[in-house]
Each structure stands twice: as structure tokens, then as C-alpha cells.
Amino acid sequence: MRLEFYDAERRFTLCRLKQYMKQEADILTRAQAGEERYSGNLGWLHVDEWAGEEKLREIETCAGRVREDGEILVVIGIGGSNQAARAVVEALSCGGPMKILYAGNNVSSQYMKQLLKQLEGKSVYVNVIAKNFETLEPGIGFRILRQYLKERNGTGYERRVFATGTRGSRLHELCRIYGYTFLDFPENIGGRYSGLCNVGLFPAAVAGMDIRAMAAGAGDMERELRNTKGEENTAFQYAAIRSLLYQEGFRVEMLASFEPRLQYFYGWWTQLFAESEGKQGKGLYPTAVKYSEDLHSIGQFVQEGTPILFETFLDIEEQGDAVSVEADEVEDGFDYLNGSSLADISRAAFEATVKAHSERLPCIRIRIDELNEYSFGQLFYFFEFACYLSGKLLGVNPFDQPGVENYKGYMFEALGKYKYRSESNGEN
Description:
- The chain is of the alpha/beta class.
- The protein contains 17 helices and 10 strands.
């Protein structure tokens, strides 16, 4: 991975960036070592802890059980409990024998009806993922889908249930009582940092992804970022540029790519930075666009709208086998494309976009050789480590999310949870 920065207006100079990174170098040093104050949230920092050889073998064994006779795995989880796996599976899956569907990420009746319809006549397994099993959406999804499994499979349905949770949690207890297969949701990893443990790797393995390549990519990125000092550290460069642009008044970071397969990666990236940095009245607002489609809409705002944002481009350099545009008997006005591949056309559009947008707004470009399991492992670790650094530069805790809980009290009150709890405890 390589990083480039474009800023025609020279909001800050390279000299200022280097000076800032030198000034804040202690943040990098402490992050590389892993700070004791965050020890309960740094399980992702050491890839081998939860994606080492022993863990990978366990995941592959469990995934093999599903793949023996399964046709569909329904992943029940919300936010960080499904974003990473979905990003990889939806980007790289080639329509193999296993299909991955998703539940527990909304409360839509129509969505659930359509999901259940897709399960009819299929061999179905479920993987419910919840760190504390108190979140509404996964609770609803698991209740409906385990009842579906019981009705279709009767006694023995429990072998089709894999539950990823923390030890000692309610979900862990349900596994003990009912015989579901339990997988660890590491206590020292938060949901949005959980792509490289059972949470993200088990569904990916069931889908046929090469989870060893994911772990290898993340491990190589770990060694690079935790051993590269000062201004040469790419994640530190990215975090420092974001911080300086925030100080210059920019309030939105927009992730962009010309690769539609990254659609669900955008969701993972958005959650990572929104939940990690959006607190204490601070933080860049993370959003994403799908080019070239959004050039015909959001592109207008970028070129002439309020200058509140900067762009981070993910540049996938190798596109693989390319489809060519060939001439036929129809005079359609596009003969200038004759013999061009879609990869060539996409490259031309990408370069033109970076050039046009960087003339008005700052742009970061992150180059990736190709999109595969190895590069996804790299991307997950790179952005997680950069988010750790960026949160520290911003002056916030990158690992808590107190604001996420605010709406739940009102919702649980409206649904009668507290009344039910009092009555079940025999309280008046």
C-alpha cells in the first residue's frame, strides 16, 4: 500500500506535515507498543492472538461442518458484527455452493419475509453474533430464525446454530443450555475492530474465502506499521493528514473508488471512523461514494459546492481479466472506444477524477495492487491502526461509543423492557 496527497491550494506544506508528525511522534510510539490504558480493546493489534494458526484451524473446522451439507448461512448481527465479513464475501464471492445472507441488522418486516422466502427448501445454518446479546436487532433475528430451524429440522436443529459471543454472556449460557456451537467473540476486541477474529473470519471461511490469506495480509501490515518509525509510517501519514485537514476546517472525509465490489467495505470503514471519533463534539464525518455512478450527482457538489470535504481514493491498480469494447455495425458515436478495455476506461476516468477534484479540494490516494483476501486483510489492519492514531491526535478515546447507547433507553422503555424486567423479578 502506498499513499499520495494532492492539495493544489496548499492548505499546508510537506514541511508542516513532517513537523506535525515529529511533534506527535510519541502517539505513534505508544500505539505501536499498545497502551496499557486501552489493553482491554487492543486484541486486534496482535493479529496472531485471534488469527494465528491454532485459531485458523478451529475456524476452518467449524466452517467445514457447515460446508459439508449447508447451502445457506444466515449471519445474524449488526454493525461491527457483520460489516467486515460482508465486505469480503460480497466483494470476492464467485457464486459457489454456499450463499451468505444477513439478518439482525434491521427491524423491517418485509426484509425478514423476503429472507425467509429465500431459505425455503435449502439446508440452512445460522451464525448469531453479539458481544453482549442485548442489542435488539440480533435478538429479534435469532428468535425468528431459530424458530424457523426448529420447525424445519426438529430435534437436532441446534447443530445448525453457531453463536459468536463473549464467555459468561447470555449467549454463551444459551449455548451451554441448548447445545449450540460457541465461538469466542474476544473480550478485548470491539465490534468495529473484529474483522480478523471469529466474528469476521468464520462467515468468510464458510463462504469459501481464503482466511489464511486475510490473516497473512493483516500480519504483514502489522509488522510494517508497528516497526516503521516517524514520517515513513503510512498509517501515521494518513492520520496526520486527516488531523491537519480537520484543523484547517474540513469536516467531512469522503471515501471514493471506481470499484463497485467495495460497496460493503464502505460501510465497515464508515462505522469504524464514525463510532471511534464522533464524540465530545469532535470528529470528521465519514461518508462514501461509488464512482463512476456518483460522479453524475455528488460530483457536482465536489466541484462547486460548499468546500467542507476532502476525498480519500482507494486505487485498485490491477483489475484482472478485462472486458473489451468492440465495434459493431451500429453507428453509436462511441467508436473512439474501439479496442479499449473497461480497465483502461476505468483508469482514464479515475485519473481524470483525481485531477479534477484535487484542483479544488485536498485528495488522499491509497494505492492497492489488487483486490483479494490478502489485500482485505491489509486494508482492515491499516485503517484500524490509522483510526487508533487518528483518535489519539483528535484527543478522544478511539475504542468507546457512549453515544450509541442514548437512544436505547427510550426504545426499551417504549417496548416495555424495564416493566417486564421488574415483573419477572417480582418487583412492584
